[in-house]
Amino acid sequence: MTVSRYFTITSRPEGLPSPDVFSLEEMELPALGDGELHVRNLWLSVDPYMRNRMDGVKTYIEPFDLNAPLEGAALGEVVESRDERFKPGDKVRHMAGWRDEAHVSADSVERLPDLDVPLQTYLGVLGMPGMTAWTGLNTIAGLGSDDTVLVSAASGAVGSLAVQLAHQKGCRVVGTAGSDEKCDWLKSLGVSPVNHHQSAEALTKAIKAAAPQGIDVYFENVGGPMLDAGLASMNDYGRIAVCGMISRYNSASAEGPANIAMVLTKRMRMQGFIVLEHWADYQKFIEEAGPLVAAGKVEYQESVFDGLEATPEAFLSLFESGTYAGKRLVRL
Amino acid sequence: MTVSRYFTITSRPEGLPSPDVFSLEEMELPALGDGELHVRNLWLSVDPYMRNRMDGVKTYIEPFDLNAPLEGAALGEVVESRDERFKPGDKVRHMAGWRDEAHVSADSVERLPDLDVPLQTYLGVLGMPGMTAWTGLNTIAGLGSDDTVLVSAASGAVGSLAVQLAHQKGCRVVGTAGSDEKCDWLKSLGVSPVNHHQSAEALTKAIKAAAPQGIDVYFENVGGPMLDAGLASMNDYGRIAVCGMISRYNSASAEGPANIAMVLTKRMRMQGFIVLEHWADYQKFIEEAGPLVAAGKVEYQESVFDGLEATPEAFLSLFESGTYAGKRLVRL
């Protein structure tokens, strides 16, 4: 008999979730069914989009049910297999995160590529955050090597790969971050840093100083005044890939960009995307980013939290500016 | 010696221009140069985008100079030609509007297509407004016959052709307008009308009632609360062609759409465009819309103002909701 320990939410949070919204529960897993795998998780991912799933509203993805196991990306080892494609010891990526042990359908898991990289990179730089950066720059914004690129939240899990992929393509890159330390790190990557704790007007000036030629591609993770500044900084025919608006996830109402009419005057294209809908391109991404990561040519930061119990803390750290950096991971 | 009478602006207006910003002047035209045409104007166009040119700010087009002849689309007859491609009596379209007589470069004028339609339609339904509607729907929004379409300011010069082109393609169409009379006219065209003098919330409800299936393509002419309502009404993967934001042209500051994050959650694409940059496709537009207009299958409204002196009044009528409808024209 296998016991699975898992997190639930017991109510719908308003604004920034309080830690006591989360509850650690356990259940006995039933007998393993045909076509299922018993997976023991090694690494769990926590990501900003999960905040949206805590609201009871269907957006592009179903909301989390109350008092049921939360979901998220995870890496695990197959302990028992009732599918001929997998055997015990195989490492897989799947969505039964926020827990230690899980029964999952073999059809729903991904076998990991064969690269000489640390396992947890498949949740970060070679996982959803990395694939998100690649998709936004290439599929959505049509990045070219002549473009000047602005990435907001550029020290985050997604942003930090976006700036590096753009930089390696030969683009000039401006990145915003929330502390001097993060800005220094961006600078070491060849990125012109801008501290994003400023008014829209001050941000606009700082971006102008960092890139007097203007911005062609804007990879947007933040929203709020940052979006006003981004719109103001764009060149004609600029492309904005809207990946996230983390500044809005915890506030019920917010002002929109007062300069939205610039979409017209500068003939811009602004497009939202959800990486899961572009997963068919994962192989293309791995072919470009995998060798760079294996060769140590991509820097990535991780903030590792230890033990299943730390999962809510890891998640909430996503909404604190300045303390933690890079991909938030839970190691089991 | 030919005298040209022309309008200037004598100062930069703030908000809605006062009539006394405009000044009627006259000058003697110099001798006609090689490659030039002397054109006598028959019809002048006034258009919302001209308001932007009155600000001293370069956007996608140079601002109007103070105390110099204003510009705009016009139809005229060649009186004298110093270019072998044109002869006296030819009808041409050109940009030396806001005046009665002009010398223009033969390279800058367009010969009109040979269709059995009233001359002034080349400033309206077969001119820039019609081409704008066609470009926004097709080139920018990628309209398909299964789409449900929302057009704001649907009784205007651009909007009224947008709704009809979409309707003739088989689309279900919702159009907003500013009076019961205009809404009745939209209804007679097979369009579900919504009065746009409502809050964003009420507009959203009214659009939902008119199109419970949601909106796939939104042709945006208005901005302000209308844009909030449009964003709220869109389906996933909706496309927004931003053609104008007339509600903002006369206000220095305005709130942006509070629900801008829907661009992300619904994976929308929002793109601004300027029809002049798509003029290479004019022939494609004429092939589709020309025969429809010649056969009387497209209804269009005109508000005709008589005499050069009425040009400022015609222009200012664009910003009054409810009194005039359709294309504003000045007949000389």
From TrEMBL, chains A, B:
InterPro entries: ADH-like_C, ADH_N_2, ER, GroES-like_sf, MDR_fam, NAD(P)-bd_dom_sf. It holds the Pfam family ADH_zinc_N. Keywords: Oxidoreductase. Gene3D superfamilies: Medium-chain alcohol dehydrogenases, catalytic domain, NAD(P)-binding Rossmann-like Domain. Residues 15-330 form the Enoyl reductase (ER) domain. One of its GO terms (molecular function) is oxidoreductase activity, acting on the CH-CH group of donors, NAD or NADP as acceptor. PANTHER family: PROSTAGLANDIN REDUCTASE, PROSTAGLANDIN REDUCTASE 1. This is NADP-dependent oxidoreductase. The lineage of its organism: Bacteria, Pseudomonadati, Pseudomonadota, Gammaproteobacteria, Oceanospirillales.
